[in-house]
Amino acid sequence: MISVGIRLTDQVFPGPEEPIAVFPGGNENPKQILDGIDKEGVAHIKRIILNRTANVEFLRAESPSRIWVRLQNHITDTKLTFREPFPLKPKLDIRKDDYALAPIDERVYRRCRIIETKNENGLIQIFFIDDATKAWVKADCLAIMDEHYMFYPWQAIQISMFGVYPSVVDYSGKLEQLWSIQTCNKLSQILRAFPILRVEVALSTVVFNDYAKPIPVKLFGIPPGIEEREYHYRAMSISQILEGGLPMPAEPEEEEEEAKVDVDSDEEEVLETGPSVKKEEVDNKPPEIVCMDLYDAAFHEVFDVAERNQIPTEPLDIHCEFPKDWKESDDAEEEEKKEKEEELFSKDSLTMKLEHADWDPRQNKIEMMTVKELGEKFRFPENDKEPRIMLAVEGRCTKSPYEWYARPIVKTGKNKREENVAWGSDKDLREVDETDWMLYGNDQLTSLAEQLDTFYSNTKNRKPLRTAEIQAMMQEKRDVFAVCAVNEERANYTGEWQRVLIVNCDQFAEVRFLDSGGRDMVLTSSLYRIHEQ
User: Region annotation Disordered: residue ranges (predicted)?
Assistant: First the structure.
């Protein structure tokens, strides 16, 4: 097995079309390209990279080499669809590979990427990154995408059927390996017949540094009406269906009609692609695709389509101009928001005006334990060794030998002094071992997480902490504590709402998680005032 990374792919394989990371050269490590707008003003949005089996929904098939799918739990409809009222501004600066918002339906906008600038008809080609559809539009209909929406990855995922190749055909007087239009149309018809597709990512000895490279997968269809627990053994191989080895899933009416057909008849049959021919002629016809048993996706090839779609001369009506009467805000909501801000803050300062002191970040502090206090409260005596502090280290939060996170383990001895150390209310735990104390500490964290989730799930208890206010308190050399709405991965283990210490605050905030451990960069909009309790 070869272990190869970005360093080798940049040297052996062709340069990436859309790199995931920048390779400086020499002995320097690759640097991942971050989301958002960089210093040169170029916008970047990550893509979802599948590395295991997943259930997806079909979007579009250009060919067996390029198929677009989307995860079942996508957020296109909930977070990435923009309807009135919503603040939209026309986009005046049109650049290739830049991102924008474009109408996908009547007065409905979604995220897109500019593929080609103006052609001879004055049209711009765009690609909707969450729906995998292309359109030719006029520049006047595009709107600016706020940088906030660049931190959500493309919802559309490009995959490629692993081990499936087009046969060599005579095209325009020379032999080429290209996908025929008939094969592409047949594939689209097959994939649309399945409500759910199952992808198994093919193993590769090379990690590619290219978002634009389709992910090689083994593709299966889940027939309608199949329960999730049966997906694994009821899935149908798409390559075998495309090759003709498996039948298409049929609707009940179609099954009844097929039952009436005499399958043993040697009479002439009509094919979709031409006039009536004998079965012997069909059997002798060269296959349009070739399926091979391959094991390493590193050298998987992507093939083009034999014919290209024609470029339209006129765009759709919704792609002609920006709606002049677009409503940017709800008047009632704006008035209510303005009244709340006037109640909460005075006009001349950032100090609280009518808010209760229970929410004042200048007063609400979380005392941090000193090394001396740690030694006094959590000393772990041993008969044959020097007293020490025993800690349960949070391995996932370890940054380096100089920065790591841990919880003290408490152990009581036989004398009275040691009993007073052991959190007096927990007498039944005084004689248990270190493992039980670690579990007890985890139960305490879970209990606190439930309390915070319960309290802050009520929208009335969420009071935003402004960036300007955070920066003002940090200039005063104050520790600023807050409650942070965390991402789904961290929330699964330690709760959605977590207490943090704000270490730094600029466009983003760097926070330290006080209960679960670790540091992270978060959006300042995810920080809320911490209540006194």
Answer: 247-282
